[in-house]
Amino acid sequence: MKEHPLEIFKFCPKCGSENFEIHNALSQHCSDCGFTYYQNPRASTAAFILNSKGELLVVRRAKDPAKDTLDLPGGFVDNEETAEQGMVREIKEETGLTVSDMTYLFSVPNIYRYSGMDIHTLDLFFLCHVEDDTIARAADDAAEATWLPLREVYVERFGLRSIRQAVHTFLQRKC
Prior knowledge:
Elements: E1 20-24, E2 27-30, E3 36-38, E4 42-49, E5 55-61, E6 70-71, E7 74-76, H1 83-95, E8 99-114, E9 117-130, E10 142-149, H2 161-174
Parallel strand pairs: 4-9
Antiparallel strand pairs: 1-2, 2-3, 4-7, 5-6, 5-10, 8-9
């Protein structure tokens, strides 16, 4: 049985008190100093990038979770960054491509296992157009970047649940 993310923290991060208890489904409260910690989902982005031939850019994950499985370019949105800025940055970091235009498509809630802890995320999916699709190269968290014809995109080859769900939704809309 998986531990609820709030059950991992035994001491108040502000004062160190042991009187740090679950307040409700999204928060823990310290009865000594009054600090309340909220466990809200992290924002994450992923891109559907199609080249001029209508092929989808996919990357192979270089790290766990789901190492060596397929993924879409993307990642966590940083503090003080919009989802769009995070999407542009992640695409540049992972593929070397420069985004020229993007359209928000949909979101999928997810649980991302990292460092032995379940991180709740809200994955935001975008359709992105890039300046030059001939220069895609794997970097950062991507071990490989490749273009696949849509008929060769198989949902089960993607390692993360929310990505599989999003790819399925995207393919249904495209076909």
